[in-house]
Amino acid sequence: MRQSALFTKTRREAPADEVAKNAQLLIRAGYVHKEMAGVYSYLPLGLRVLKNIEQIIREEMNALGGQELVMTALQDKALWERTDRWDDEKVDSWFKIALKTGGETGLAITHEEPLTSIMTEHVSSYRDLPVMVYQFQTKFRNELRAKSGVMRGKEFLMKDLYSFARTDSEHQAQYDAAREAYKKIFKRLGIGERTYITFASGGVFSEFSEEFQTLSDAGEDTIFVDKEKKIAVNKEVMSDATLQKLGLTKEALVEKKVIEAGNIFHLGTRFSEALGLAYTDEQGKRHPVVMGSYGIGVTRMLGILAEVMSDEKGLAWPESVAPFKYHIVSLGQKGDEVSRAADALYADLTQKSIEVLYDDREARAGEKFADSDLIGIPYRIVVGKEALASGEYEVVARATGAVAKKTHGEIL
Ligand code: ATP
Ligand code: MG
């Protein structure tokens, strides 16, 4: 893409009311637009990163045998009353809307209820299980805290996976497989090293849930990490009894600030019993389906990566999710030899389907470099008079500053 054609512009200052580093950088670099507190639009650059994050997650969900669907944002009140999750006393984050036909609807906060209900129309026999189903879908939550930028939206994109099994042991196998898939996802997103599987409060059906918590000073959560064993405990369940159960000792733990990137839950039969999702076994006996749920915040991930992969100059995307692989910065003037060489390099890379942003704008070199640092594409190729004279371009890695000299042919 030619930068002269990109409608978004970089800016020096983030909005005064934006306190989160991730949103400040993403707004300044033109990835997101702040609509209001906790509500963001994703502009072309931001959408490219989101799509790349989504694709990594999708590949791992498919490898797990997950089947993708997409459910509705508008929710049926009657269904949520059956699980006792409609009442504001029970769930305080609903956005509820009056219907012209009478009654009300709500904007989806999560999707256990509607999916369990869908499954009752398709699952009836032991032959129909086990199954895993997932989606990328917008959730709405009337969140109080709005200091974390895109990491805590009132409207945000989540990947949610749900598992359906015949027995506890079959469920456990699905849960363990999802856990492994999550490890692969966070590794591919470049945060494997700094993301800890953390024991947290579990809900009704198990003692613990597990959270994938990423180290960051901007985090809202506090965990205690055992670096040797590579596991952690959320502050909310930290007690002598918990430590004993997990075989951990207080002395080996370090307190850390973290952001929750994802979590995995045992749901037991809470939803299947309430909504009548059951199967008939080989002997003709009926049993409730055993469920699990597994979330990853996709828009939150954009924020996490902006938060932990950036420096004072701007963003520094890992190659796996970057909006483009290369940023060509041309120091030429329209029609001169330098800009012709940059044009040729851009054309050849594009021809090979290598993703490249080409700064072909009529602007000062300093401005172009500052913008390039802010936008954070992994490799910058500088096309100037020196490069033409030597026949080699400087290819600068944004994250490390490492410089490689490469000819036109070597870059391709
Ligand atoms: P948190 O404790 O951060 O509020 P949660 O326990 O409410 O998260 P879930 O309801 O299980 O989280 O949602 C699954 C995932 O969705 C989370 O792990 C997180 O990555 C993401 N997520 C949750 N709330 C938000 C939000 N308000 N904005 C963006 N992402 C979110
Ligand atoms: Mg929450």
TrEMBL record:
<dbReference type="InterPro" id="IPR002314">
    <property type="entry name" value="aa-tRNA-synt_IIb"/>
</dbReference>
<keyword id="KW-0547">Nucleotide-binding</keyword>
<dbReference type="InterPro" id="IPR004154">
    <property type="entry name" value="Anticodon-bd"/>
</dbReference>
<keyword id="KW-0648">Protein biosynthesis</keyword>
<dbReference type="GO" id="GO:0006433">
    <property type="term" value="P:prolyl-tRNA aminoacylation"/>
</dbReference>
<keyword id="KW-0436">Ligase</keyword>
<dbReference type="InterPro" id="IPR045864">
    <property type="entry name" value="aa-tRNA-synth_II/BPL/LPL"/>
</dbReference>
<dbReference type="InterPro" id="IPR044140">
    <property type="entry name" value="ProRS_anticodon_short"/>
</dbReference>
<dbReference type="GO" id="GO:0005829">
    <property type="term" value="C:cytosol"/>
</dbReference>
<dbReference type="InterPro" id="IPR002316">
    <property type="entry name" value="Pro-tRNA-ligase_IIa"/>
</dbReference>
<keyword id="KW-0067">ATP-binding</keyword>
<dbReference type="GO" id="GO:0004827">
    <property type="term" value="F:proline-tRNA ligase activity"/>
</dbReference>
<keyword id="KW-0030">Aminoacyl-tRNA synthetase</keyword>
<dbReference type="InterPro" id="IPR006195">
    <property type="entry name" value="aa-tRNA-synth_II"/>
</dbReference>
<protein>
    <recommendedName>
        <fullName>Proline--tRNA ligase</fullName>
        <ecNumber>6.1.1.15</ecNumber>
    </recommendedName>
</protein>
<dbReference type="InterPro" id="IPR036621">
    <property type="entry name" value="Anticodon-bd_dom_sf"/>
</dbReference>
<feature type="domain" description="Aminoacyl-transfer RNA synthetases class-II family profile">
    <location>
        <begin position="38"/>
        <end position="318"/>
    </location>
</feature>
<dbReference type="Pfam" id="PF03129">
    <property type="entry name" value="HGTP_anticodon"/>
</dbReference>
<dbReference type="InterPro" id="IPR050062">
    <property type="entry name" value="Pro-tRNA_synthetase"/>
</dbReference>
<dbReference type="Pfam" id="PF00587">
    <property type="entry name" value="tRNA-synt_2b"/>
</dbReference>
<dbReference type="GO" id="GO:0005524">
    <property type="term" value="F:ATP binding"/>
</dbReference>
